[in-house]
Amino acid sequence: MKKEFKVTPWEVKGEVDYERLIKEFGVSKISEKLLEKIKKHTGELNPMLKRGLFFAHRDLNWILDEYEKGNKFFLYTGRGPSGKVHIGHLIPWIFTKWLQDKFNVELYFQFTDDEKYLFSNKSYKEIQKIMEDNMLDVIALGFNPKKTYFLIDTKHAGLIYKQATRVARKITFSMVKSSFGFKDSNNIGSIFYTSVQAVPAFLPSVLKKKNIPCLIPHAIDQDPHFRLTRDILPKLGYYKPASIQCSFIPPLTGIKGKMSSSGNKETVIYTTDSQKEVERKIKKYAFSGGQSTITEHREKGGNPDIDVSFQYLKIFFEPDNKKLEKIERKYRSGELLTSELKEILIEKINTFLKKHQQEREKAKNKIDKFIFKD
Ligand code: TRP
Questions:
Q1: What is the pLDDT of residue 254?
Q2: Is residue 259 in some structural domain?
Q3: Which one, of 225, 342, 333, 357, lies nearest residue 287 by Cα?
Q4: CA-proximal residue: ligand 1, atom 3 (nearest)
Q5: Are residues 239 and 276 in the same domain?
Q6: Burial category of 328 from C-beta neighbours within 10 Å (exposed 0-12, middle 13-18, buried 19 and up)
Q7: Is residue 260 part of a domain?
Q8: Same domain for 316 and 182?
Q9: Which of 173, 186, 340, 363 suits a disulfide with 139, CB 3.0-4.6 Å?
């Protein structure tokens, strides 16, 4: 029997089967050949590509062909300011920065305060506070301030609204019902919202009065938005946006889910967590692929494939292949204990967060530089 799972932009439930998702969403897997093509331009491959965190795409071949012809793309990604940022959010943004650096391109970063207002019970006041705080995390990652533009849906409404209505006129209620599973009881703002998320994919083309290809790095749950966007934009005379998609960063408690604050806050590592907090959470919650006693572990070894600490090292925190392989080998053989593996991860995360938190402080004076000026 097929296991049930659900992936929409607002809900991820059950054990996600990515192979099935690729088929259901109609996205393409990133092939070895495509990796080679990327490498031609970037010189090296980001571990998130090599190790398969970014695993699917739409029209990435085309975007690279255009780039090779001198038709540069811009990047577009975003954040719905619903709460504090955790390390699961950072990882696709770090990848986006890598793309920005390697291809030397502009990035439009959308903050969807309207979305989070429409899809939650929070007040605009709360959301504005969260959004400003979230911006610090984005800036702290070191995006190029000369090439990065924050679009805030309510602040830049004068610019965005007109374009959103152009998209909205081409989308029917039945299209959003089938794309997102909306019911008659959904508020009417949520039904309109997808047309707002479509706008940054062509806004630069509008502003610069020429067609510019767009590449969207995002987690696969956002694909339904961009599937619609891709249907509509050619009807308005723009390119379909291309995308490069990652799987979810698992919560501490198991590799099958998605790190999410709407679940248990204890199973999430926030960017503002103290070193002690990180240590406590990992020791207490990080799901282990090890055996239940040391004797048994030495005998049978651990299973890194289901071990969350190992998976975090693989996703991001140990970029060095040789070091990662050594950890894997020692863990499988039972030489390395779960507690020792966790120590490695704690040290890596804390080193990363220490720098991130310093940059976050410095970012407080930089917000204005990043906000798009029309
Ligand atoms: N809807 C996204 C969220 O809830 C935010 C977002 C807007 C986004 N535009 C995007 C994410 C483009 C990825 C790419 O977080």
A1: 84
A2: no
A3: 342
A4: 80
A5: no
A6: buried
A7: no
A8: no
A9: 363
Mutate to test the pocket of ligand 1, among 11, 79, 85 (most ligand atoms within 8 A of CB): 79
What separation in Å is there between the alpha carbon of 263 and the centre of ligand 1? 19
User: 274 with 138, same domain?
Assistant: no
**In the numeric block, which tokens belong to residue 344?**
């490695």
Q: Are residues 24 and 161 in the same domain?
A: yes
CA distance 70 to 89: 32
Residue 374 falls within a domain, yes or no? no
Average pLDDT over residues 72-90: 97
pLDDT one-digit tens code per residue, 237-257 = 999 999 999 999 999 998 777
Pair 282, 169 in one domain:
no
Which domain covers residue 35, as residue numbers?
5-247
What is the pairing mode between strands 214-219 and 242-246? parallel
pLDDT of residue 86: 96
Nearest CA to ligand 1 atom 6: 78
117 plus 231 within the same structural domain: yes
CATH code for the domain in which residue 313 is found:
1.10.240.10
The pick from 225, 248, 372 for probing ligand 1's pocket by mutation, whose C-beta has the most ligand atoms within 8 angstroms, reads: 225
Q: Which atom of ligand 1 is nearest to the CA of 217?
A: 14
Q: Which two tokens stand for residue 13?
A: 């439930």
Residue 207 and residue 282 in one domain: no
Last residue of a domain, one of 202, 221, 247: 247
* Domain match, 200 and 285 both: no
* pLDDT classification of 4: cutoffs 50, 70, 90: confident
Q: 290 CA distance to ligand 1 centroid (A)?
A: 36
Q: Is the pLDDT of residue 263 over 70?
A: no
CA of 77 to the centre of ligand 1 (A): 6
Convert the pLDDT of each residue in 178-201 to its tens digit: 999 999 999 999 999 999 999 999
| Cβ pair 194, 179 in contact under 8 A | yes
> pTM above 0.85?
yes
